[in-house]
């Protein structure tokens, strides 16, 4: 049976390296009547505390995503065949005003999601998670935030600025956007400012599975703990690519040693097929520090596994 959905352009007709890059060579949003999932870029990095450059992340991830293929054998789904996925282009965000940019991102994300379209956003620095959460929770109410990152991103301010890439989840928690019993960071590591950081973080509603616990617990137990924490709540997935070890993702602004392998991260994301994902982002890809697209290939595969986890599964055949 042929699919009613428009998928990636056919790589046996137009080579996959030809043409202007959309994510996975998917159709643009203008080219379909209705999208179930939109991949959208947010080229914004005015919220960074260290190396800049994530504003070039969306274009870099799209380039690396040319090689993605339609069938995901581990999840046994064809994400582009089972629902309409599109590339919605980039949201224009003012690089000289964080406040205006955050407003623009919230407005654009709200408009894109108005007819029920779910968003997978490619950043951009982690600041953008705040307006994305504001937009999605208008429809869903508070969400369980599943946050993959080396960093807590629940700090208070930098140089007095409340909206930065180190603060989105504190603001989101204060605004009542997140479910305080079900949110979780995975992959946390590296030095903090003080012990108080972890106390504040717990009060703001996050549990932590730290990077070193992959050693002691093992991957299967990490997945078990994650699913138990999320329960049956709607989940927003936020992936800071620096959750990966710098050997797997050098192209990022605030790298920390001792991170996850891409194989570990992809395995954890596959387990999310069991939960309801209402939106997701993949952020902090900074191409100036990347080599041979290593980071962008990882980010494009992370995005692909998220799209696969968001794919509806056929109902089991009735037993006769
Ligand atoms: N969200 C990312 N990638 N980094 C936050 C680091 C904040 C800091 O410089 O302390
Ligand atoms: Zn980070
Ligand atoms: Zn982050």
UniProtKB/TrEMBL annotation:
List of residues binding Mn(2+) 1: 149, 151, 153, 240, 242
Pfam family, one: Arginase
SUPFAM superfamilies the UniProt entry points to: Arginase/deacetylase
PROSITE patterns (UniProt xref): ARGINASE_1 (PS01053), ARGINASE_2 (PS51409)
Annotated InterPro entries: Agmatinase-rel, Ureohydrolase, Ureohydrolase_dom_sf, Ureohydrolase_Mn_BS
Domain of life: Bacteria
Cofactors (names): Mn(2+)
Residues where Mn(2+) 2 binds: 126
Keywords: Hydrolase, Manganese, Metal-binding
GO biological process, one term: putrescine biosynthetic process from arginine, via agmatine
UniProt keyword annotation of DNA damage present: no
GO molecular function: agmatinase activity; metal ion binding
E.C. designation(s): 3.5.3.11
Keyword Hydrolase annotated: yes
Record note on cofactor: Binds 2 manganese ions per subunit.
Family membership: Belongs to the arginase family. Agmatinase subfamily.
NCBIfam families, per the entry: agmatinase (TIGR01230), PRK02190.1 (NF002564)
Name the record gives this protein: Agmatinase
């Amino acid at each position: 049976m042929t699919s009613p959905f428009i998928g990636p352009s056919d790589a046996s007709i137009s080579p996959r390296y030809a043409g202007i890059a959309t994510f996975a060579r998917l159709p643009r949003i203008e080219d379909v009547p209705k999208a179930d999932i939109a991949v959208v870029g947010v080229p914004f990095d005015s919220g960074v505390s260290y190396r800049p450059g994530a504003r070039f992340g969306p274009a870099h991830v799209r380039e690396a995503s040319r090689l993605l293929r339609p069938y995901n054998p581990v999840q046994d789904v064809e994400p582009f065949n089972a629902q309409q996925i599109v590339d919605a282009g980039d949201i224009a965000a003012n690089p000289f005003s964080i406040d205006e940019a955050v407003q623009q991102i919230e407005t654009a994300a709200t408009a894109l999601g108005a007819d029920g379209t779910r968003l997978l956003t490619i950043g951009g620095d982690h600041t953008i998670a705040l307006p994305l959460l504001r937009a999605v929770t208008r429809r869903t109410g508070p969400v369980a935030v599943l946050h993959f990152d080396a960093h807590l991103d629940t700090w208070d301010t930098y140089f007095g600025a409340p909206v930065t890439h180190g603060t989105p989840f504190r603001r989101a928690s204060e605004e009542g956007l997140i479910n305080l019993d079900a949110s979780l960071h995975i992959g946390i590591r590296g030095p903090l400012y003080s012990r108080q950081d972890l106390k504040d973080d717990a009060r703001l509603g996050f549990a932590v599975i730290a990077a070193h616990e992959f050693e002691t617990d093992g991957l299967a137990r990490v997945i078990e703990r994650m699913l138990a924490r999320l329960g049956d709540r709607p989940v927003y997935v936020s992936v800071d690519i620096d959750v990966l070890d710098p050997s797997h993702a050098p192209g990022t602004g605030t790298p920390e040693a001792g991170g996850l392998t891409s194989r570990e991260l992809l395995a954890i994301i596959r387990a999310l097929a069991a939960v309801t994902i209402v939106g997701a982002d993949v952020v902090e890809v900074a191409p100036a520090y990347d080599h041979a697209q290593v980071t962008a290939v990882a980010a494009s595969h992370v995005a692909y596994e998220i799209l696969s986890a968001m794919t509806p599964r056929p109902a089991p055949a009735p037993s006769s």
